[in-house]
Amino acid sequence: MADQSGSQHSRGGSSSNQTKWLIVGGIIALLLVAAILLVLVLTTQKDNQPTAAATPPPAGPTPTVTVTITVPAPSATISPSPRQEGTDFYNALPSVVRDYVLVATAPDDGLEDAGALEAYALTYTNGTNTITLRAGQWRTDGLAGEALAELGGAASSDTEVTWANQTAVFQAKATPGGAVSFEAGFPY
User: Would you kindly state where each structural domain of the chain is located, as residue ranges?
Assistant: First the structure.
């Protein structure tokens, strides 16, 4: 009997050892699963958060930022001289261009000698600077283009601007910087 009880006891001990190993194995398995889940959670959070050391932008040209400030166009502070009625071309020539006003008008014999149907030398001032505008009208666009070429072609400098608008040719001469501003505000 002693043998039987001893063998039962050893079976019971073996069963007890198996249970211990199952518990230890279960705990290890749970710890392993928990570790895997923790790694997955930390990896996912790391991908969604910005990193402190950001990668530098790719090499290439630096973008240029352009700031545009629009100011109101200057306006005349003095009144233009009264003028006589004339042809449609003459009447269409402005009395005010930006801050410049018309103060004198005379025929432009040079442009009439160059074939203009009518031509004028107009003087504009803003009280400080003076601009002389030669304005002539030709019978056709082609004839106006030839006259423009004789005046040096469409050109722009600090003191002189020459341009055409269909059958009309214009040339403004001014103090430095005035001609370009005048032409920019001229309606034709």
Answer: 1-48, 88-185
> Which neighbouring-strand residues pair with 135?
120, 170
Half-sphere exposure of 61 (CA within 13 A, CB side): 3
Q: Which residue from 93, 116, 119 is spatially nearest to 108, judged by alpha carbons?
A: 119
User: Coil, strand or helix: which one is 126?
Assistant: coil
Written as one letter, the residue type at 52 is A
Q: Counting beta carbons within 10 angstroms of the beta carbon of residue 183, is it exposed (0 to 12), middle (13 to 18) or buried (19 or more)?
A: buried
pTM higher than the cut 0.70? no
35 three-state secondary structure? helix
> What is the full per-residue pLDDT of the chain (188 aa) written as tens digits?
444 444 444 445 567 778 888 888 888 888 888 888 777 777 776 555 555 556 666 677 777 778 777 766 777 777 788 888 999 999 999 999 988 999 999 999 999 999 999 999 999 999 888 999 999 999 999 999 999 999 999 888 889 999 999 999 999 999 887 788 888 888 87
